[in-house]
Amino acid sequence: MAERFTNAKQAAMPTSWASLYTVPAGKVAFVLGLLAASRGSGEAGCYVQWLDAADGNAACTITGNLSIPNRASVELVAGKILLKAGDQLQGQASAANLLDLTASILEIDQAEEE
């Protein structure tokens, strides 16, 4: 199985849901790190969710309205999050352009079921 480390970013997070990362077909992905950081222009609430492609894109909250202080960053993932092909990682902020969201991801080829 091939493995590939990658990253994804959402600079200047918007106030509506926006996709940060979508798992490619034939892959599974582990979110190893997820960091929300202030852009130095004020405090804002951070919202992050993932959409389950196998369940009609049902949303599952990772964090809701977590306050990120001005000039600070917060690690949002204490462990790992497993996502499957088609699943999406999304984010939004309570105020536009105040936060950045960065993900560190390990993609692995999904073995075909026999």
Put the structure in a nutshell.
This protein is mainly β and 114 residues long. 0% of the residues lie in helices and 61% in strands.
Could you walk me through the main structural features you see in this protein, from its secondary elements to its overall organization?
By secondary structure, the chain is mainly beta. The chain has a single domain, classed as Nucleoplasmin core domain (Jelly Rolls, Sandwich), CATH 2.60.120.340. The protein is 0% helix and 61% strand. The chain contains no helices and nine strands. The strands form two sheets. Strands 1, 3, 6, 7 and 9 form a five-stranded antiparallel β-sheet that branches. Strands 2-8-4-5 form a four-stranded antiparallel β-sheet, with no helix packed on it. The chain is elongated and about 45 Å long.
Give structural attributes:
single chain, 114 residues, mainly beta, Jelly Rolls, five-stranded antiparallel β-sheet, four-stranded antiparallel β-sheet, 9 strands, elongated
Chart the SSEs and their pairings.
Blueprint: E1 3-10, E2 18-22, E3 27-38, E4 44-52, E5 58-68, E6 73-75, E7 81-84, E8 88-93, E9 99-109
Antiparallel strand pairs: 1-9, 2-8, 3-6, 3-7, 3-9, 4-5, 4-8
Mean pLDDT: 94
Poorly predicted residue ranges: none
Count up the domains: 1
Assembly status: single chain
In CATH, the topology is named Jelly Rolls
Helical percent range?
under 10%
| Tally of contiguous helical segments | 0
SSE string, helices as H and strands as E? EEEEEEEEE
- Classified by CATH, the class is Mainly Beta
